[in-house]
Design brief:
The chain is 56% helix and 0% strand. It is mainly α and 303 residues long.
């Protein structure tokens, strides 16, 4: 019994020794690799956390820059477009920047002055800051490009439908300014459809109101030329009356007429001097004799 117990004990010791040896061989073979894997996983988590932190900081910076660029009255479209290119991957920042830039160009076209123009002391803009036809066309082209970039970047139902509606409204306004009535109608209809499908409706009402006014814009009213206006009849030189060269004979002067009839009764030109306004001094009526003064002390005479 003791011998058998000793054999079992020796066998257990040999098994334990074999397990320890296999574990040691495993650590020698796979230990470094496991350490590398653990280190890589920890590094990945740390890197992801760092990148997320940097992305959050960049997002905050983008929105701060956008607020600064749009918070002043003197909005610069160039600054906004540069901001859109710099933060093109930051949420809605590039879309809002491009939309605001396009609307700034449209506002300048409506005012008829260059971007950043300031009125003088009298409230009028200097002549060099007024918008000419070439610069007006350039502003409209840049506004159209900014709005179109937003339309190309967004899809309907992507959660940014409000920006898509705003872009179509801007494209319609550009088309109106360029006289492209059919394109304006298409963009207004598209904006109204997207807005109603998204559950808003306010911009759809505005778009439909603009659609109703497009028919009046399509019908152009042309003013008649000078040749089409009625011309007054001018009498020939041979038909003019020598006594009335200016054609005043048929003009009713209401008692202020000049001539023989004007000196007659009821002409309104008679004066106490007689003979009318143009009468001779000898034609004046004889005045009544003055009464003879009486002496108050003399006795009254019988009749």
């Amino acid at each position: 019994m003791d011998e058998r117990h000793g054999q079992l004990k020796d066998k257990a010791g040999l098994d334990e020794s074999r397990i320890n040896e296999e574990f040691r061989d495993f650590l020698v073979k796979w230990g470094p690799r496991l350490l590398i894997i653990v280190a890589l996983v920890a590094l990945a988590f740390s890197g992801r956390r760092y990148l997320n932190q940097k992305a959050d900081e960049r997002t905050d910076e983008a929105f701060v820059q956008l607020a600064l660029a749009t918070g002043s009255d003197a909005t610069s479209p160039d600054t906004l477009l540069s901001l859109a290119r710099q933060y093109d991957d930051v949420g809605a920042v590039p879309h809002v920047a491009r939309l605001t830039a396009g609307e700034a160009y449209l506002a300048a076209v409506r005012r008829g002055v260059v971007i950043g123009a300031q009125p003088g002391p009298t409230g009028e803009f200097p002549a060099e800051e007024l918008l000419d036809e070439e610069l007006r066309t350039s502003y409209l082209g840049q506004a159209r490009q900014a709005f179109q970039q937003v339309v190309d970047a967004l899809d309907v139902g992507s959660g940014a439908d409000i920006h898509l509606v705003r872009a179509h409204m801007g494209l319609a306004a550009v088309a109106e300014a360029m006289g492209e009535i059919d394109q304006a109608r298409t963009h207004y209809q598209r904006a109204a459809t997207i807005d109603r499908d998204a559950g808003y409706g306010a911009m759809a009402q505005l778009a439909e109101a603009r659609l109703n006014s497009l028919d009046a814009l399509a019908t152009r009213t042309s003013l008649p030329s000078t040749a089409q206006l009625p011309q007054p009849e001018t009498p020939d030189a041979g038909e003019r009356d020598e006594d009335d060269p200016f054609g005043l004979g048929g003009l009713d002067l209401g008692g202020f007429g000049v001539g023989d009839e004007g000196q007659g009764e009821g002409s309104g030109m008679d004066t106490p001097l007689g003979g009318g306004l143009f009468g001779e001094p000898g034609d004046a009526p004889t005045p009544d004799p003055e009464p003879t003064p009486t002496d108050p002390t003399a006795p009254p005479q019988d009749p």
